[in-house]
Amino acid sequence: MSWLKDPEGDSHQRISLTYRFLRKFNRTVMSVWFRELDIVDNHNLPNEGGIIFVSWHPSGLIDPMLLHASLPGRLSILAKHTLFDMPVIGRMIKSGGGLPIYRVKDSDDIDASKQKNASMLQNAGLEVANGGRLLLFPEGRTHADSDVGKVKTGAARIMLNALREAQRKGLPVPTLIPVGLHYSNSNKFRERGAVILERAMDLPEIPVRIGEDNEDSNADQSWVLEVTKSIEAELKRASLSKTTWQERRLIWLARSVAYAERAVRSGERIQRPSYAESVLGARRLRAGWEYYNAKDPEKIASLVNKSKSHFAELESIEATPYDVAAKPEKPAFLGYATAFIAWIWVAAWMLGLVTWSAILGNVPPYQANYFTMWQLKKRGVEQSILGTLKIGTGVIMFPIWWIFVSLAVTVMFLATESPVYILLNKHWLLAYFTKINPLIMFFVLLIWWPTSGRLHMKLYARLVRNWRELKRWKNWRKDEQYWEKLQSRQREIGGMLIELGDSLILPGDDEWQEPKTGRDDFNYVSLRN
């Protein structure tokens, strides 16, 4: 994972040591939480001027942590003020550039909340005008829906303040950039994620003040509502919004079938694309899907039905489109044997010091965290915040356990009456371990537990990949006629997808024209001549 570099120059805000430390912490957590992270289209970031980043909010605390880690420069984040009252998370949010927003429904004093919000929005606009960078989740809440929720007006109001202030002072024009957040499963450990930085939004001219309070207020309100509507449309496009998760999943699986069929036709070896490449493929397929749904739904009805039936059958045998597409014509025993040897090789390494250290240093707090999540699920906690709670409790449980186990092991090695101390002193070489300075041993162990955990995860990831490859070869070698039927059907679906896709101009094609601000991709899809 390569993180983006901070902008340089006096026009950009200075990044404090505390902010760098907290961002480093977030980057460490995110690089552990996800096995693959992509940040793409950073060329869309302007070289000067303030920026407001807007994103949808599908995964609680994971969203701001990931964007705080990913977006360059000093980032301020608007968060509901109740989060600042939480003992650990509140302090982290504040130190990381968090600004409280006072939602009316969270306060007993409605007038006071509105007054505080108006002041906060004004100050945030001034900060952006002076080159600051602000992150907003304009839906105002986290959710587990497949579609973007109704967007609040706060982002547009801040942008209007920022544009006016920049115009008054002759500063570079601030920009509003939508961010696409994509997860294979944000609430599951070691999944994949992508941050897509969309192009800056084209905004209407700001209203000219004429000195009449009512007319100025009405003009400002019209501008804010128009921009808010555009933000909502941009977030729907950036997040590949669909009505249901079933539709999103169908698009994602169909994308992999089309990718595999193109590889087969070109004679290339089928490899898994990066997650960012997969997101672009899903964007293309979604645009074509929506185009035909609007223009000629009967043309894709047969394809949709065949795809649903095929993917349901694959799910019933715990297979993926990749398993079907990558199957060799004659899966020889040598391939199975090679996969088995690779799995044994990694498993042998996992029996060494790294894994045993990882078990001692990380399994107890991990299991405590798992038990806590299980209890919360039983009590009906919303799915959208489970990932947040998992990270929050982990941040507390793991360090406490590392301190405890470091002290325990130090005492076991260095206390003269300890059985371990006595055993080590029976051999002249092992006796040197009992002469280490206690403070040095404690701090080395404190660093070693998380380090061994990360090393173990790398070994474990390879073990899981090799195990899946082993199972794949085992399945390929039995019931060959059944696999041939699956391949034939999948190639038919892939061919239909490619034929339809090649007849259209889609996102990523040379002829593609990016939609105007506030319009979705499918509005700009067209038939090739």
Keywords:
two-stranded antiparallel sheet; seven-stranded mixed β-sheet; 529 residues; Glycerol-3-phosphate (1)-acyltransferase
Globally, the shape reads flat
What is the average per-residue confidence, as pLDDT, rounded to a whole number? 86
CATH architecture of the largest domain: 3-Layer(aba) Sandwich
In total, how many beta strands? 9
N-to-C SSE series? HEEHEHEHEHEEHHHHHHHHHHHEE
The name CATH uses for the topology of the largest domain is Glycerol-3-phosphate (1)-acyltransferase
Q: What structural category do the secondary elements indicate?
A: alpha/beta
CATH superfamily of the largest domain: Glycerol-3-phosphate (1)-acyltransferase
How many alpha or pi helices? 16
Poorly predicted runs are: none
Strand order of the biggest β-sheet:
1-7-6-2-5-3-4
Under CATH at level 1, the class of the largest domain stands as Alpha Beta
Gyration radius, to the nearest Å? 27 Å
| Major sheet details | 7 strands, mixed
Beta-strand percentage range: 5-15%
N-end to C-end Cα span: 41 Å
Helix content: 55-70%
How do you describe this structure in short?
The longest helix has 39 residues, at 438-476. The protein has a 7-stranded mixed beta sheet with strand order 1-7-6-2-5-3-4, with helices on both faces. The model has no long low-confidence stretch (mean pLDDT 86).
